[in-house]
Amino acid sequence: MADVMKFDLVSPERRLASIEATAVRLPGSEGEMTVMAAHQPTVTTLRPGIVRAEGPEGVAEFVVISGFAEIAPDSVSVLAERAYPRAELGREELQKILREAEEKQAVAETEERDLADRMVADIAHLLEMME
Predict the structure, then answer these.
(1) pTM, whole model, 2 decimals?
(2) Separation of alpha carbons 20 and 42, rounded Å
(3) How far apart are CA 67 and CA 47, in angstroms?
(4) How far apart are CA 62 and CA 130, in angstroms?
(5) Is the Cβ–Cβ distance between 98 and 127 less than 8 Å?
(6) Other CB atoms within 10 Å distance of the CB of residue 81
């Protein structure tokens, strides 16, 4: 069996996962990344996207809106501002999240505008992926 690591995903509302994983795919702010056991320690921010954990028990997928991932050789911990099991997030809820991001984008100051633009684009892309 492949090397396993601990995968934890928490949001302010609840713990969504605490499982063994052989690989975890993350929507890093600088691009998609796949983490496996013995990965170099890293901390990265997350953009809206799908977190996919593969392990001995199968595959678990979650939608994150933003957050951080702390990666160690034997674990991946995701602290998400908002996160949902992929199967539980409907199109209506994701459209609501997109509208909220668009409202923030509309009033964003100049220095915050690029970040707001990227957030809206990433959530719109996520909405397309969920169809």
Answers:
(1) 0.84
(2) 19
(3) 7
(4) 11
(5) yes
(6) 12
3-state DSSP assignment of residue 77: strand
Burial status of residue 120 (CB atoms within 10 A of its CB: 0-12, 13-18, 19 or more)? buried
For 4, phi then psi, to 5°, come to -110, 160
Distance CA 58, CA 60 (A): 7
CB 5 within 8 A of CB 20: yes
pLDDT at residue 14, rounded to an integer: 95
How far apart (Å, rounded) are the C-alpha atoms in residues 92 and 28?
25
**Whether 69 contacts 43, CB under 8 Å:** yes
Which amino acid is located at 119 in the chain?
Answer: M
CB 81 within 8 A of CB 14: no
CATH T-level assignment (fold) for domain 5-87: ATP Synthase; domain 1 (2.60.15)
pLDDT per residue as tens digits for the range 46-99: 999 999 999 999 999 999 999 999 999 999 999 999 999 999 988 888 899 888
CA distance 14 to 10: 6
